[in-house]
Amino acid sequence: MDTQLEQKVAAAREALRFINKETRLGIGSGSTVDCFINLLAESAGSRGTVTAASERTARQLETAGFKCLETAQELDVYVDGADEIDDNRQMLKGGGGAHTREKVLACCARHFVCIVDDKKSVRRLGRFPLAVEVLPVARSYAARKLTALGGNPRWREGFVTDNGNWILDVSGLDLTDATTMEKNINTIAGVVENGIFSLRRADVVIVAGSGGLQVIDKR
Ligand code: 5RP
């Protein structure tokens, strides 16, 4: 497991242990999830119904022969990657700009299985810029408010989310109290959702590194 791709595949393969044919499954997005979809397609023979957190994931799943549900129902398991994850199973997500729907599916699920390579494991969240989805009309206002919270927001120019909104990538925020920051940012008018996953943490974390797999199971 020397390369990052090998590690992503190993973490994704381990996640298959947490699902079976009856599992009501939700799937996030990103390159680690791409590995999971490939393995799932092989193991499930590309049958079944799943809920996808992004249009891209839905297209991949449908191409592999799965049926995708349009709206989020109750889920047994949600599998997704992360941009950062700490020892308390709090995450930063949204590098792909899909964190709003990802959070909805994570909240619909009984168990959130997070699959990462060990470059994503951090002692403290905040090196990766925090993705904040905003209504286009609120971009400047939200940027000013995020600056007042200590951040340095940058517009992800040219990128439109699946919900038709824009993303501000915010560096420099103090995420020592990630739960409070998650709540505070979501009170800014025009903010749709931010990429802190502290209120809804992972239940299972699968970390793949050159030394092997580490599985933290808090279900
Ligand atoms: C997308 C996300 C992804 O889960 C996150 O960016 C991880 O992606 P990758 O597996 O490619 O590193 O939050 O919005």
Automatic annotation (TrEMBL):
List, alphabetically, the Pfam families matched: Rib_5-P_isom_A (PF06026)
**Record-linked CDD domains:** RPI_A
**Hey, which pathway is this one from?**
Carbohydrate degradation; pentose phosphate pathway; D-ribose 5-phosphate from D-ribulose 5-phosphate (non-oxidative stage): step 1/1
Top-rank taxon:
Bacteria
Q: Please state the Enzyme Commission number of this protein.
A: 5.3.1.6
Q: Does the keyword Isomerase apply?
A: yes
Give residues annotated as binding substrate: S29, G30, S31, T32, D80, G81, A82, D83, K93, G94, G95, G96, K120
What job does the chain carry out? Catalyzes the reversible conversion of ribose-5-phosphate to ribulose 5-phosphate.
Q: Which NCBIfam families match?
A: PRK00702.1, rpiA
- Family named by the database record: Belongs to the ribose 5-phosphate isomerase family.
Please give the name of this protein.
Answer: Ribose-5-phosphate isomerase A
Q: What are the top taxonomic ranks of the organism? A: Bacteria, Pseudomonadati, Pseudomonadota, Gammaproteobacteria, Candidatus Tethybacterales
